[in-house]
Amino acid sequence: QGYEGLVEGGDNIKQANWLSVSNIIQLGGTVIGSARCKAFTTRAGRLRAARNLVEHGITNLCVIGGDGSLTGADIFRSEWAGLLEELVRDGQISEEVARKNCRLNIVGLVGSIDNDFCGTDMTIGTDSALHRIMERTFVLEVMGRHCGYLALVSGLASGADWLFIPESPPEDGWEDLMCERLGE
């Protein structure tokens, strides 16, 4: 469950093996879960996450996400040494454990349905989101907070009659024009 799993710990942190990841490539979405996590935006939440990682001997993270996830990863990485010092000071871990886990390595992968990251043809999640959209019909609101890429390509792919995207807001009177077009 993303950062929420790191903060909550317990059964949220599991070792992945061949059986747990086989036969999932064709599935849309994520089988490892995803959740926004207010607690991780606080130092106290990141301290709990650090404690849970150290308990499992995890010092390598692969973070797949958008701006919030990758910003969170960068903050977590920059605070790591201080978080371990605080855990030692509070008696939650020993100095030896802190030394063994003194380095946090993070790989960040852009996972955004918005497909708004330069330097890549398509971000992780865009294709499966587009396929899911194609299964729906008529009036549809798709994801993409400030980016109309997914709406645009799904509209093109499905032959949509009308499309709204943030990059090109409708002009005044669009309602009458749309009703006229639908009437035709």
Automatic annotation (TrEMBL):
Gene3D superfamilies: 3.40.50.450. Transmembrane segments: none annotated. It catalyses: beta-D-fructose 6-phosphate + ATP = beta-D-fructose 1,6-bisphosphate + ADP + H(+). It comes from the Eukaryota. One of its GO terms (molecular function) is identical protein binding. Its cofactor is Mg(2+). One of its GO terms (biological process) is fructose 6-phosphate metabolic process. Residues 1-171 form the Phosphofructokinase domain. The keyword Kinase applies. This is PFKAL protein.
